[in-house]
Amino acid sequence: MQNIRLALWGLLLLPSALWLAIEPQVFSADSYFALRGFLVQYSGIIAMAAMSVAMILALRPRWPEKWLGGLDKMYRLHKWLGITGLVAAIIHWLWAQGTKWAVGWGWLERPQRGPRPIPDTLIEQTFNSWRGFAEGVGEWVFYAAALLIVLALLKRFPYRLFFKTHRLLAVAYLALAFHAVVLTKFSYWTTPLGLIMAALIAYGSWAAIIVLLRRVAVNRQVKGSIAALHYFPDIRVLEAEIAIPQGWPGHKAGQFAFATSDTAEGAHPYTIASAWNPAEPRIRFVVKELGDHTQRLRQSLKVGQEVKIEGPYGCFTFDDSCPRQIWVGGGIGITPFIARMQHLAASRPDQRQEIDLFHTTADYDAEAIARLSQDAEAAGIRLHVLVDGRDGRLNGDRIRQLVPGWREASIWFCGPAGFGQALRQDFADHGLAVKRRFHQELFAMR
Length: 446
Prior knowledge:
InterPro entries: FAD-bd_8 (IPR013112), FAD-bd_FR_type (IPR017927), Fe3_Rdtase_TM_dom (IPR013130), FNR_nucleotide-bd (IPR039261), MRET (IPR050415), Riboflavin_synthase-like_b-brl (IPR017938). This is Ferric reductase. Pfam families: FAD_binding_8, Ferric_reduct. This protein is an alpha/beta fold. It folds into three domains: about 1-215, Four Helix Bundle (Hemerythrin (Met), subunit A) (Up-down Bundle); about 220-315, Elongation Factor Tu (Ef-tu), domain 3 (Beta Barrel), CATH 2.40.30; about 325-440, Nucleotide-binding domain of ferredoxin-NADP reductase (FNR) module (Rossmann fold). Helix content is about 50%, strand content about 15%. The chain has 16 helices and eleven strands. The longest helix is centred in the first third of the chain and has 34 residues, at about 70-105. The radius of gyration is 26 Å and the shape is elongated.
C-alpha cells in the first residue's frame, strides 16, 4: 500500500511542480479571469496525467507489478487514479463551463479582450482553428466519462455490464486526449512538462486502442479445458480443475489468474488453489458463490468445456526470510494457502519455516476441512480451524496466544478486507513492523 500511495502522490506532485515552474505568475493573478486562465490549464493537466496512467495500467503491464506489490495493488492505484482524474476533471469543468454560466446569469462580467494574435507556426494555427470543436468534444465526453467512472465505482452495478461499459472509457479517453492536445497552452509543449504529458498521452492513447481491440495481455492467455468439477454444498464452493496442455509458464503458490468461460461475461480473477507441476499441467480454482456470476457457474460449467486462462499475476508468494510465518485465510481466502501447502509438500525444502495456518469460516464442510487437514499434515504446517458460530471470531489476541513466537513471524492474510485491516492495526499496536511483515492481497478488481 505504501508504494501505491507514493506512486499516486508522485504522479500528482511532479506535473504540479513542473507546471508551477512554468507559471509562477499564478500567485500574482490580479483578477478572477486571470486566475481562471491558469487553473483551467492546471486542472486539465492533472486530469489528463491521472487518466493517462490509469489507462496504461489497464493493460496489466508487467514492469510496475513487483514495485507496486502485485496486480491487485496496481488495480487499486488504477481505481484511485480514476477517482483523481474524475475530481480534477470536475474542477476543470467548473472553471471552464461554470464561469460561462456565471457570465450568462450576470454574476460575472467578462473583461474585454482584443483579437487573438496570429500564431507563427502552422501547427499552432491549426490547433487554434480546432479550439471550438475541441471544447465541445471535451464538454460532452466529460459527461459520458463521469457517468462511466461512477458506474465503475458502484459495487451493485453487475460485473457483466461493468465489463462492457468500462471499455467505453477508452473511447472517452481518446476524445479527451484530442481535447487536451488542442487546448493545452501551446508554449507548454516545448517544456519538460509538455514532453512528459506528450509521452503520457501517446502511451495512454496506444493503451486505449489496445483495449478497444480487445488485445490486452493476449500474449499471456492460454486455452485449457475443464478436466474436473467438484461442489461442496455446505460451504457453497465449486472446485474446477483446468487442464492446460501447453503455453502456461507456470506459477508460484499464491498467485492468481483471469479465467474466461463466457465471453459475454468477460474475464474474472481467481486465486490459483494448486501448486504447479509441469509433468501434470493443470491448475485448480476454488470459487465461492458470492454473486450472480459465481452462483451460475455450477450450472453453466461442464467437464470438457474450453476455458481461457490469463496470467499468472500477483506477488502474494510467501517470499521472505522470517523464521516463522503466520497464515490467515478467511473464508474463501484459504485458496492461496492450499496452493502453498501443496508446493511445500511436493518440494520438501531442507529448511522449513515454522508455519501456523488459521482458517476462519462461517460455514463448515467436513470433506473440505478433511482435505485441508491432509494438505497441512503433508506440508508440516500447524492448522487451526475456527468456525465462527462454534469457536468465536479470530483476532490478534488469539493468534498471539497460540503462536508465542509471533514477534519473529511475518503474517500473510487473505480474506475480507475489513478483517485484514483490523488484524494489521492490532499487530501494529503490539509492535509488529507491519509495513514489512504484514502481507495482504487486495483482491478487488473494481
